[in-house]
Amino acid sequence: MRRVLWLAILAALVRGEDPAPTPEAINRAIDAGVLWLKSAQLEDGSYGPCMAGGAYDGTAGGVCYRLGPTAFSLFTLAVCGVPKEDPAIQRGLTWLRKTATRDYEYASYESAALVLMLTALNGVDAPKGKLVRSSGHRRPPEGSRFPAEEWRWMDECMQLLRGCVNAGGFGYWPEEEGYADVSATQFAALALRSASFAGYPVPREDWLDIVDFHAKLQDPSGGFPYQARSKPSRGMTAAALSTLFICREQLALEGLKEPPSLAPSIERGMRHLDSVFDVETNPSPHFEGRDHYHYAHLYAIERAGILSGRREFGGKGWYPRGAAFLLRAQDRKGRWTDGTCMGPEDVLGTCFALLFLKKATIPAVTRK
Length: 368
Known about the structure:
Strand order of the largest sheet: 1-2
Helix content: 40-55%
Number of helices: 13
Distance between the termini: 38 Å
CATH topology: Glycosyltransferase
CATH class: Mainly Alpha
Radius of gyration: 20 Å
Largest sheet: 2 strands, antiparallel
Low-confidence stretches: 1-14, 54-60
Mean pLDDT: 89
CATH architecture: Alpha/alpha barrel
Structural class: mainly alpha
Number of domains: 1
Strand content: 5-15%
């Protein structure tokens, strides 16, 4: 066994690549990242606001998301095995309950992050047998261990999230007429999937509309842009593909036939991702090819790989290459700081990196 490992390391060195990290090294990196993320929590239990200094396409602007970093951090900690009873999670939940009031204007990202957090904290996983649906939005299914109070909280988030639907995709804010993008839609799809696994009744039409939204947006190259009239990027292509695989899964679980556009869209997108795959950068078509949202891009690669069942893109192993890159990029404190993302860059960068290393995405579920 050791001889095989050393031969693999030698072959990687000959090719000029980082050798695949050992499971032990990956686990140490995850443990260090979790410790740093817990230490980064502020005294009030939050992780600070997410300060967006401008739009993805480089246009001026700025907005503050108060809930997102805290909800996404608690989601990440839960996925990494931190129990719900942990003091850091309890402090974060207390702050969120006080802050997430109905008079606060939620962005779709925040609603989605809260749903992901609540389902992860309550142990929601892929259904092991027949899907059990709640008979109503406001109460969990019969026999569910999901606390009733937290189910109602999730329902509020789902209602707010679905208020951000536009043209089949999801935008940032409720009543933002005519606007939708691949990035907001990817997080919405992740939240809808997790809620569905918990037994929440997600309308079938949502999945069909999301497929149609992506089919209209896809570039002739097979890649996907951030939004209409944008140029495709590697990160958005991986994000869109992961969303389409979720739609395929959920339609199958509902016993619905795939729309005819779905398979060709996935096939073209996968060919494009194979042709551009790389873990070292995520060049932005809007910023003169500079690296942009790099760790978010790696999290999208992880989802596309897990949901497609593919170990390689373009003949290259996505996980060993991505893990090698992340272990090299982790600083001595245990964090990852993405200088190309919105702030808090160290919190969000660390969350995205941990989710990649942990292979956080639930594999696609099929039912005959």
